[in-house]
Amino acid sequence: MADDKKKKYYKELEDLPGVGEVTAEKLRAAGFGEFSAIAAAMPHDLAEVAGISAESAKKAIEAAKSTIDIGFETANDVLERRKNIIRIKTGSTALDDLLGGGIETMAITEMYGKFSSGKSQLGFQLAVNVQKPVDQGGLGGGELFVDTEATVRPERIVQLAEAQDMDIHAVLTNIQVARAENSDHQIILIERADEIIEKHNIKLVIVDSLTSHFRSDYLGRSALSERQQKL
After folding, report:
1. What is the DSSP string of the chain?
2. Is the pLDDT of residue 171 over 70?
3. For residue 198, how many other CB atoms are within 10 A of its CB?
4. Higher local confidence (pLDDT), 169 or 4
5. Diameter of the chain measured on Cα atoms
6. What count of other Cβ atoms lies within 10 Å of the Cβ of residue 99?
7. Which of the pair, 200 or 3, is modelled with greater confidence?
8. Do the strands 142-147 and 202-208 form a parallel or antiparallel pair, or are they unpaired?
9. Is the confidence at residue 124, as pLDDT, over 60?
10. What is the pLDDT at residue 187?
């Protein structure tokens, strides 16, 4: 009964304990616009972006948790949810077979390999393919590309689109590119991605590469623990 009352009371971020209008705006600007994001946050991270004490952050997190359903579910529920998974075709039948049909939605897929092994090229191909209809191996939506190494090459994307007789202007317009200058900037871009995702019907997010800034910003064994925590 108490939980029901809390769920009715906490309707906006401003309703959370220790969170007023100013703090709520800071949270939204940092990508914590939903109760689910706050519930999953670490107290010190929330305190830092909101400019509040760690204790206040803990109370806000606990209040946010009371408004959403987090915890256990049956395997049946998991099965039903996984029935909605779609796979984006990579353009390579062999690679699609290895991946069980393509790049899976509702998941994070990591591609790794040595320099010039084709990781960025795969990203470009997926940025094009995701825009195709579902029956053609896409998701019928746009793509968000977080570029950490200045690897985005629109001219290559044009070539890939032309090879499939796609509208080049439409393909390029449906790809949103953000250049991350360092690891902190990269984190901010990801935290704020939900705004772009909703506005531009984004169906795929690519980060190329995920770890490069973290390797350069956190050097040596002494920084390894902090680097891993940030990642």
Report:
1. -HHHHHHHH--SGGGSTT--HHHHHHHHHTT--SHHHHHTS-HHHHHHHHT--HHHHHHHHHHHHHHS--S---HHHHHHHHTT--EE--S-HHHHHHTTSSEESSS------STTSSHHHHHHHHHHHTTS-GGGTS-SSEEEEEESSS---HHHHHHHHHTTT--HHHHHHTEEEEE--SHHHHHHHHHTHHHHHHHHTEEEEEEETSSHHHHHHS-SGGGHHHHHHH-
2. yes
3. 9
4. 169
5. 60
6. 16
7. 200
8. parallel
9. yes
10. 87
- 177, β-bridge pairs: 145
* Whether the Cβ atoms of residue 149 and residue 158 lie closer than 8 Å to each other: no
Cβ neighbourhood burial of 104 (10 Å; 0-12, 13-18, 19+)? middle
Q: Which two tokens stand for residue 18?
A: 């220790």
What share of the chain in percent tops pLDDT 90?
Answer: 50
Q: Are strands 103-104 and 87-88 parallel, antiparallel or unpaired?
A: antiparallel
Question: Are 144 and 196 spatial neighbours (Cβ–Cβ below 8 Å)?
Answer: yes
Q: Quick one: which of 8, 9, 6, 16 has its CA closest to 37? A: 16
* Per-residue pLDDT, 219: 84
Q: Is 145 a residue whose pLDDT tops 90?
A: yes
106-141 per-residue burial string, b: 16 or more CB within 10 A, e: under 16: eeeeebeeeeeeebbebbbbbbbbbbbeeeebbbeb
